[in-house]
Design a protein that fits this description.
The chain contains seven helices and no strands.
């Protein structure tokens, strides 16, 4: 009987141990770690540009405001120049505004009015670059005409033996050519240089001749005075 009780007690203890082992919670499986790119550096998500409440990025809003301010400034400049009668400068200001705001009705209307006052036909609105090219062409033609006129004047003065005046005319012509060195002058530059050297050479000869004549007059006056003293 004692032996049977011992067996029952051992079986109970074994069942209790197995029950406790089965009721123990298993260890939690570790959460998978995010994979990193080669090199061990995590990829960075690009930051989004700040959005303006009125739509578009902040950069776009700033750029638009700056464009509007420039167009308004060009319009004010053009109106002031037009009031002073400087239609050419007013046109340039309006063409600048038109490049920034091609569809601005106020700019187009004022530009057409300025063209009408200039006597330009309707429908001839160009660009700022076109107008600047035309002005540059006109300026070059005027400079070329001015140099040719000065060369002709210098030749006329040389014929009248006014070599000093001829040199001055040619000096101004040379300065104009040097100032607009980017222009295509053709052989006009060589003509001016040759005429200037010729005028300077003849001027030096004229000066030497004048000095010789002066010396001769002074010598003659000294001889006359000496003769008068001898006579007395």
């Amino acid at each position: 009987m004692a032996l049977e009780n011992s067996r029952l007690l051992a079986a109970s203890l074994t069942a209790a141990v197995l029950g406790a082992a089965c009721s123990t919670p298993t260890e939690a499986t570790p959460a998978p770690q995010p994979q990193q790119p080669a090199g061990g550096i995590a990829a960075e998500t690009p930051a989004a540009k700040p959005q303006d409440p009125q739509g578009g990025t902040l950069e776009e809003r700033v750029r638009d405001e700056r464009t509007k301010a420039l167009v308004a400034q060009y319009l004010r400049n053009a109106q002031g120049l037009r009031s002073n009668g400087d239609l050419g400068a007013a046109e340039l200001e309006l063409l600048r505004a038109k490049e920034l705001a091609p569809g601005n009705d106020e700019v187009i209307t004022l530009l057409r009015a300025v063209h009408a006052e200039q006597g330009k036909p309707l429908g001839t609105i160009g660009t700022y670059a076109d107008q600047m090219a035309k002005l540059r062409e006109i300026g070059e033609e005027r400079a070329r005409t001015s140099v040719q006129t000065q060369l002709q004047r210098a030749e006329q003065m040389s014929a009248e033996r006014n070599f000093a005046g001829a040199i001055e005319e040619l000096r101004v012509a040379t300065l104009t050519i040097e100032t607009k060195d980017e222009m295509e002058w053709g052989n006009l530059r060589q003509q001016v240089d040759a005429a200037k050297k010729e005028a300077e050479t003849r001027y030096d000869e004229q000066q030497r001749q004048s000095q010789a004549e002066l010396n001769a007059k002074q010598a003659e006056e000294l001889r006359r005075q000496f003769a008068e003293r001898e006579a007395r």
